[in-house]
Amino acid sequence: MKLSQFKFDLPINLIAQHPSKQRDESRLMVVHKDTGKIEHKIFKDVMNYFDDKDVMIVNNTKVFPARLYGRKEKTGARIEVFLLRELSKTNRLWDVIVDPARKIRVGNKLYFGDNDELVAEVIDNTTSRGRTIRFLFDGNEQEFKTVLDSMGETPLPKYIKRKPDEEDRERYQTVYAKYEGAVAAPTAGLHFSRELIKRMEIKGVKFAEVTLHTGLGTFRPIEVEDLSKHKMDAEYFNVDEYACDIVNKGIQEKRKICSVGTTTLRALESSVTARGLLKPEAGWTNLFIHPPFNFSIANSLITNLHLPKTSLLIMVAAFAGYDLAMEAYQTAIKEKYHFFSYGDAMLVV
After folding, report:
1. Of 33, 82, 215, 262, which has the fewest CB atoms closer than 10 Å, so is most exposed?
2. Is pTM beyond 0.90 here?
């Protein structure tokens, strides 16, 4: 398939700038793969589509406040530093993206905080805007983390045209987030409230957790027309034995197995046995799912509504079928659903 097949006109006012008032009261579009029927519901209605012993698989990654603003030595120019991942705890080395990149060279020092509480030195170039930096900090690991957390901003995507506030610290995070490492929220999970999860568990739905630390690569623009030539950035994932036991029991009993989000779906499909079961595995995945693709684990999917020509939309089309997915997106636009991180949800069953 070609990238241009995933182009559509999205009115700018449909990109959600704020979360819904209640997590589980965003809108939900239900898309039936077998009949092509499309229904319009509220997210909390999702529990009506699942029964006793069906399985929900969620991504328990936790977003950290990854966006820092500092000053360049001598000139005092304002620099945005986006933390991608920690390379070495002991040396305090980080992979980052800097903006504006043209001003930041190896050897430059960057100062953070009103009183320069934190200093970093640029030690390498990685990509056009990528750098490796070393934080110069004398305290222990916990003190360093506290300083980073206090200075960092919730890393809202750039298409949210406002400054993050206190509400975002809570809402740009799932209620079941556990393991810090993501620079973007697994957004399908943002719709689940603790009450909804409890009600589903009382109904008998089993919850399994996997981890995939969402990196910026998920949102990197695809620049090749031939999708088979696109390379995804690697992201760390972990699927443990406990999750495998829950999921494989559901597969063997022919239950509904629902992946909550495209990040969860990537972790699952990166950890499949020859017999089509889930296996325990931890490591890095650069799997790019595009049509045609045979899914081994999940037979239903909860996902947000994604932007045109993105790897996320392409993955949804692989799962739902290209024609049905694109029809659903046109319906979403017509019905004025809200798109992307803080937007509404879609259930593909």
Report:
1. 33
2. yes
What b/e sequence results for 143-162 when a residue is b if at least 16 CB atoms lie within 10 Å of its CB, and e otherwise?
ebeebbeebbbbbbbeebee
The token pair at 317 is 């089309």
The SS3 assignment for 278 reads: strand
CB atoms within 10 A of CB 140: 9
Kindly tell me the number of DSSP H helices and DSSP E strands found in the chain: 7, 17
Q: CA 248 to CA 342: how far, in whole Å?
A: 32
Angle at 298 between CA 186 and CA 342, to 5 degrees: 25
> How many whole angstroms separate alpha carbon 97 and alpha carbon 39?
41
| Angle (nearest 5°) at CA 339 between 336 and 345 | 90
pLDDT tens digit at each of 349 positions of the chain: 999 999 999 999 999 999 999 999 999 999 999 999 999 999 999 999 999 999 999 999 999 999 999 999 888 899 999 999 899 999 999 999 999 988 899 999 999 998 888 999 999 988 778 899 999 998 899 999 999 999 999 999 988 999 999 999 999 999 999 999 999 999 999 999 999 999 999 999 999 999 999 987 776 789 999 999 999 989 999 999 999 999 999 999 999 999 999 999 999 999 999 999 999 999 999 999 999 999 999 999 999 999 999 999 999 999 999 999 999 999 999 999 999 999 999 999 9
